[in-house]
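Subject: mismatched residue count in predicted assembly?

I count 772 residues in my input, but I want to confirm that the predicted structure covers every chain. Input:
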Amino acid sequence: MEGNHSHDHELGFWRKYVFSQDHKVIGIQYGFTSLLFLLFGFTLMMVMRWQLAYPGQPIPIIGSWLGDDRAPQGIMLPEFYNQLGAMHGTIMVFLGIVPLAVGAFGNYVMPLQIGAPDMAFPKLNMMSYWVYFMGGVTMLTSFVMPGGAANSGWTSYPPLSDIATIGQTVWLIGMVFLITSSLLGSVNFIVTIVQLRAKGLTFMRLPFFVWAQFVTSFLLLLAFPPLEAAGVLQLMDRLAGTSFFLPSGLVVTGQPLNVSGGGSPLLWQHLFWFLAHPEVYVLILPAMGIVAEVIANNTRKPLWGYKSMVYAAIFLGFMSFIVWAHHMFMTGMGTIISTFFQTTTMIISIPSIIILTALFISLWGGSIRFTTPMLFALAFLPMFGIGGLTGLPLGLSATDIPLHDTYYVIGHFHYVVAPGTIFALFAGIYYWFPKLTGRKMNETLGRIHFFGSFVCMNAIFMPMFIVGLAGVSRRLWDGGAQYAHAQPVLHWNEFMSHGAWALGVFQLFFIFNLFWSIRKGKKVEENYWHATTLEWATPTPPPHGNFLTAPEVFRPPYEYSVPGAKRDFTPQNQRMEA
Amino acid sequence: MEIPYTIKARPDTGLINAKLGIWLFLASEVMLFGALFSSYILLRVGAVEWPHHVLDVPLATVNTAVLITSSITMVMSWASLMMKDFKKYKIYMGATILLGFVFLTIKYFEYSHHIQIGEIPSKSTFFAIYFTMTGLHMLHVIGGMIVNSYFWGPGSKMWKTEPERFTNRIEVAGLYWHFVDLVWIFLFPVLYLL
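Triage response: the counts match. Full output below for your records.
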């Protein structure tokens, strides 16, 4: 952890661009890798959607490439469908969204916003990227294992996962890499925020994005280790023949399983959801942080209720550790425990609503600039709202019973993470692109990307509520075709699939825009959005060490349209106007 | 600009970066072992029968003493550096590493005895959790020994160039070592005595 990295010119190509310790390069590495994984995970889903829309029909074009053990004559096997389902979830959450929201945005933007020269531990930072990369490669290699990739769902519930094919072992090893990576990252983030804040940048002057990253890091730090423990126990079950998650007397395909038994499948669920519920807030908090920055900047006024938002985020962090069993109402854990967890679940909705309301009220009376990042940020609000509100019936044990494991659940959490978090991430890419490159992304292409994605997202996920309320279970290979109760809503499957493929088409506008703008985008001034936070007080792109002189902060983060000021924005590092 | 507070503490937090970092890391370790202890409780509560007196208590008692002694020598090595006595540091740090080896050797005899008589992880839930928890703890011991050996050998060159920073490093390594010791203090009664 040598502190001296300011001799930029002495580094060779490998040290500068590949094994770099500069938080900005690492952030960009995280960004491109996670965007690739997002695209890959989305592609898996587009293939699955063919099977759901037209069950038993050969997949066009790519069907013949998949091979006989996945799709003979191009017709998808149920086993392959299960692999795609498990890997879609795993890749989107652990390899796509979290690394993009935390690894990329957190790494690139957060040190700049707090006026730091770099992360506190640059070598650890480099390690966490490469460990993440290895985890990703491990996950990908599982597709070519005998029996294919993990196929027990992204939740990997035992006993099924304990007796699944070898792909599950590879999944567990991949998860251990990813957990290690986020542990290293979260330690680094917290230390950086606590220790490296610029002079005068008190906690209550931090941009909300930094607060969001701060709380997120604590969730990653404290919630991931129990999953690591669970992963070790499941590895022991699979490799050393133990029975942590295998109950006595288990019979598999007519044969009693030759294990000592005495384990508990519920133990896995508790350990898994102890991580996976805070994980939901890991997905949403950085998104809220990005949206807060974009909204304050594009309404040209301070965030409404900044302090309440900060306290709400902290409270959200605490509460997220005691709501996990609302995923387990169907396990028969008893009404008293259910009551406890549904109470805490109702309580945790309050801070989310506070943050969302504050963001809504921030729009009031602002002179809104409808730029592409602002469009995505504005769409985040109602989309996340729908996602959150449809979660309430799932948080109450009585209404959860008919809805559990149906498409309603899929619709609910996708509204939170897809048109919710992913829209916020797009907002962040369009918003900070000028900081990275000194150019802006094309507005027309951005608008096509936004409006197309907005319509398609709703076309995919809104019908899921209808299908789910009709009682159609998730994870069905044929989308419910063999069930009588699913027949009246079956036609929605085709509609949703067309929505998904159209969504894919609209992402091409984004991909083209991104690469085209890096080289050909319109050159813009250094503080293009007229923003107040510190990341815009550095040269573009920021040099190694970020700031030419150590910045000093004199005011809160969002001093827009200060009465009597010459301009409609007053940067944090600007001294009081006399 | 260079990264500040690598040697001198930040005035308002009173911490150097590495010290805050190690405490956060230890917090995550608490959650890791906490999850395993919770699993132990859940499995034991649900068990039909739970074996007693199958582990070697005297050996484990010796091992407990060994680890506690190693924690003391670890503190002494840091204290020696605080008093600018590099020779004593070498002796105490060397002792810490040696005591780690003693711990591992005793553990090796314990493990091989159980494996010889067929008491392997797949035999019962008790041996499954015993091997998993002590195994994971052992990996932590080995990790600590690798770090300590580095600071005893090649890493100790830093004493000549940046003595203050080197002292900080030993303090941080010591915090980790005490934590590993503490985990064993919990493992010993839970697995061997209760």
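Helices of chain B lie at 17-45, 57-82, 86-116, 125-152, 158-161, 163-193. Marking this ticket as 'not a bug'.
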